[in-house]
Specification:
Oligomer: single chain
Number of domains: 1
Number of strands: 0
Distance between the termini: 30 Å
Shape: elongated
Length: 90
């Protein structure tokens, strides 16, 4: 589901001239992110314990989401109903 939401937001909110670049960046994140997370989780699990790896990863994810919401408040105010007026300003 998150992929559908992400793709819809990208397609509706990014200007046509940047859509290819944003889609490419998204593909890199989607393809590489889980592999990088697997390496991190394995490293932490081998250093401490698998349980600590899972719990600390979950906490880091929640803290990261909160931090992103604080640093980029536009994310918390996102409203898809406004996209029709701002999708292609040029």
């Amino acid at each position: 589901m998150s992929g559908v939401f992400r793709g819809t937001i990208e397609q509706l909110s990014v200007p046509d001239s940047l859509r290819g670049r944003i889609s490419a960046a998204s593909l890199v994140v989607v393809a590489g992110g889980p592999a990088l997370g697997d390496v991190e989780a394995g490293a932490v699990a081998s250093l401490v314990s698998p349980t600590f790896s899972v719990v600390s990863g979950g906490i880091a994810c929640v803290v990261g989401a909160i931090l992103l919401g604080v640093l980029v408040p536009e994310f918390t105010r996102y409203n898809a109903r406004n996209l029709g007026t701002n999708a292609n300003p040029g």
